[in-house]
Amino acid sequence: MKRKIVVSGRGEVRGRPDVMTVQVGVSLVRETVGVAATEAASLAAELVHVLQFSGVESDDIQTANYSIHPEYEHTAHRQRLVGYRVTNALVVKIRDLEQSGAVLDAVASVAGDDVTMGGVGFEIEDDAELVTAAREQAWNDAVAKARQLADLAGLELGNAISIEETVAGGGHPVARAFAMDEAVAFQSTPIETGSRAVIIDLRVAFQLLD
């Protein structure tokens, strides 16, 4: 049976996000379903027009939720039908991050009090170079550990005989929730993207030689 040693290595490289994902839409209550659906459809169409006018591609705009349900006002002794709520939510990818605040401000100005914004997420969509750099770090880390352990055992480190890799970060969005009053303030509030980490974990088995 061949002797072997199994070690783990980790590499972490940080980069600036290149895409912002945000859920925007309209949610309104009107006395009848027909009126609510018609007005919601009109506002949603205006939102899409504004997004496209602001440079967002059609492929980066996707319907996330559409719902209609009655809304009631509850009191101590009874409930009263107020009307019908129609919600139409879109998931939008904004690739020009320098204009992201202006885009959200434009959305808020179109829908007014009926606008909804769920959360903001930042991701690194083009993370190939970061993954390569993190993988190299992880490999060097694993080799250094394996060499030290082999030296301590008085043995020679052989070739790698198995490698398992786990990738985290980068393309996975990090959501940031914000309140409606914050959305209204986007005209004067910059969007801070921060940085994201791409992390590579390797589990490597090396052969040990006499």
Overall description:
The chain has 210 residues and is an alpha+beta fold. The chain folds into 2 domains: 1-18 and 124-210, Translation Initiation Factor IF3, CATH 3.30.110; 21-122, Alpha-Beta Plaits. Helix content is 30%, strand content 45%. It contains 4 helices and 8 strands. The protein has helices spanning 33-53, 100-111, 128-152, 180-184; strands spanning 4-15, 19-30, 61-74, 79-94, 115-123, 156-169, 174-177, 196-209. It has a 5-stranded antiparallel sheet. The longest helix is centred in the middle third of the chain and has 25 residues, at 128-152. The protein is elongated, with a radius of gyration of 26 Å.
Summarize the structure.
The chain has 210 residues and is of the alpha+beta class.
Secondary-structure blueprint of this entry?
Layout: E1 4-15, E2 19-30, H1 33-53, E3 61-74, E4 79-94, H2 100-111, E5 115-123, H3 128-152, E6 156-169, E7 174-177, H4 180-184, E8 196-209
Antiparallel strand pairs: 1-8, 2-4, 2-5, 3-4, 5-7, 6-8
Helix pairs in contact: 1-2
Give the number of domains. 2
- Spans of at least 5 consecutive residues with low confidence: 172-189
Beta-strand content: over 45%
Measured between the Cα atoms of the first and last residue, the distance is 13 Å
What letter string, H or E per element, gives the SSE order?
Answer: EEHEEHEHEEHE
